[in-house]
Design goal:
Elements (H helix, E strand, L loop, with lengths): L6 H19 L2 H20 L14 H7 L27 H7 L6 E5 L4 E5 L4 H6 L16 H21 L4
Antiparallel strand pairs: 1-2
Length: 173
């Protein structure tokens, strides 16, 4: 068996390696795609009332339903709740937990994206009590940030595809 590479082929491979190295240093595009997918996952979790990847969130107590508005059963959402239900005041107080995890730039959102890390979450008051529960406030844990192994695998695949693109297509973008 004989393997031969021409000078032209060597320059092409060298160019692909250089371009691949550049893509490895500039991951902003794929990191933003991963953030968008994280927000999509959060929407799914809220819409499913916590059923994504496990059991449902504990139902609201009858008194809470009454305060929120008769017939309003959306847990951790305040978009259709009675005025004044939310303990966070002001015109921007409606559905702040949901929005902080599903809408870019929303109030209380924690989002810091670099070429190598994503810091994503919420600093909305009472968010920790809802995520982990609070026996002092009689709030059961209703974990709203639950990323599954399949999510992490998808994000790893997205990054791998980004880094490997020059070698898969054989072209520099």
């Amino acid at each position: 068996m004989i393997f031969e590479m021409s000078e032209e082929g060597a320059f092409h491979v060298s160019g692909l390696l250089d371009f691949g190295a550049t893509k490895g240093r500039d991951t902003a595009v794929v990191m933003e795609r991963i953030v968008a997918d994280m927000m999509r996952v959060e929407r799914q979790t809220f819409y499913a009332q916590g059923r994504r990847g496990g059991g449902s969130w504990k139902p609201l107590l009858p008194d809470t339903v009454r305060k929120k508005g008769v017939g309003y059963q959306n847990i951790l959402r305040t978009d259709l709740a009675n005025p004044g239900y939310s303990k966070i005041g002001g015109a921007q107080s409606v559905d702040t937990l949901f929005k902080s995890l599903t809408q870019p730039g929303a109030r209380y959102q924690i989002l810091d994206v670099t070429n190598s890390t994503i810091l994503f979450g919420t600093e909305r008051p009472y968010a920790g009590a809802h995520q982990h529960g609070s026996w002092m406030r009689f709030i059961p844990a209703r974990p709203f940030m639950t990323f599954l192994p399949t999510d992490e695998e998808r994000w790893t695949r997205m990054m791998s595809e980004h880094l490997m693109a020059p070698f898969m297509t054989g072209e520099k973008e």
